[in-house]
C-alpha cells in the first residue's frame, strides 16, 4: 500500500479510538471552554488546572501524531519510503540485513518497534498526565500498517521469522479501490473533527488536513 493509505488508515483508527474514549467519558458533548476545567481522558477522576480546551487539544494532537508515526514505521525497511528517506542509515541497515516486508512487517517487529515508546511513556509523563498511554496510539498506527499491507496480494510475514506470507488478496497498490479507501478514511477524519467542541474542532480540522494532504 502507499504512504497516503497507511497514514490515513492509521489516523482513522486512532481517531475512532479517541472518539470512543470521549463518548465513554462524556466529553464530546461537554461544554469545554477556557473557563471550564477539563476531565483528563486517561483518568476521569483527575482534573487539570490549565484551560480544558488547550489540554484536550494537546492530548488529541499528541495521540494522532504518534499514530501517524506508527503507521509509517514498518516501511523503515525501505530506503525509498517516506520514513526511510528521512532515516537513511537505519533504513539502509535494515534493508540490507533483513530486506523489505520482513521483520518490520510482523508481530515481532511491532513488539520491538513499540517497546521503546512504551518504556518512555511509562517513565516520562509527557504533556501533563496523559503520556503513559502514548504507546497505545503508536501501536494502533503500526498495526494499521500491517493490516493494510495484508490486504495486498503479496501479503506480509505476520509470524516472522517464519517466512509464510499472509494476505487477504483484496487491494492492489495504486488501484481505484485503494483510492476509495483513502477518500473514505480521509473524509471521516476531517468530518470527525467537528464532533468536538469549538474552538478545538477548528484547530483539529486544520491539523488533520495538514496530515492528510502532506
UniProtKB/TrEMBL annotation:
Origin, by domain of life? Bacteria
Pfam families in the record, alphabetically? YdjM
In alphabetical order, the GO MF annotations are: hydrolase activity
Q: Which InterPro entries match?
A: YdjM-like
Which keywords belong to this entry? Hydrolase, Membrane, Transmembrane, Transmembrane helix
Membrane-spanning intervals of the chain:
54-73, 107-128, 188-213
* PANTHER family xrefs: INNER MEMBRANE PROTEIN YBCI-RELATED
Instruction: Quote the protein name from its UniProt record.
Output: Membrane-bound metal-dependent hydrolase YbcI, DUF457 family
